[in-house]
Amino acid sequence: MRKLFLAAAIATLLPAAAQAQWVPINQRQANLATRIDQGVRSGALTRPEARRLRMQYREIARLEDRYRASGGLNMAERRDLDRRFDRLSRRVYVQKHDRQAR
Questions:
Q1: How far apart are CA 67 and CA 100, in angstroms?
Q2: What's residue 83's pLDDT?
Q3: Which of 13, 21, 46, 94 is deepest in the core (most CB within 10 A)?
Q4: Taking Cα atoms as reference points, which of 18, 12, 16, 50 lies closest to residue 32?
Q5: What is residue 9's three-state secondary structure?
Q6: Mean pLDDT, the chain, whole residue set
Q7: Is 14 helix (H, G, I), strand (E, B) or coil?
Q8: CA 29, CA 48: separation in Å to the nearest integer?
Q9: 71 or 17: which carries more pLDDT confidence?
Q10: Alpha helices in 21-46 (DSSP H)
Q11: What is the rounded CA–CA span in Å between residue 8 and residue 5?
Q12: What is the pTM of this model?
């Protein structure tokens, strides 16, 4: 009985812990734009890399606008945007650390 209660308590806390780490989409956009700008200023990103990353960033922003225009973001759309921002964030990291200098 005690193990069952402990398992139920942990199961109810896990979704709350995962949700506490969620970052709003607008904040993610601001963070990515800042990282790209900082990469250009520091020389870690070349101009073509920055141009490509910004183009991908704008594509995601346009997709978000289309989602919002259709009545707001549902959970599937939010997850889709999160995945796309995750991929773009990884691309920014890879491009900033690929040892290409401008």
A1: 36
A2: 95
A3: 46
A4: 50
A5: helix
A6: 83
A7: helix
A8: 20
A9: 71
A10: 25-42
A11: 5
A12: 0.72
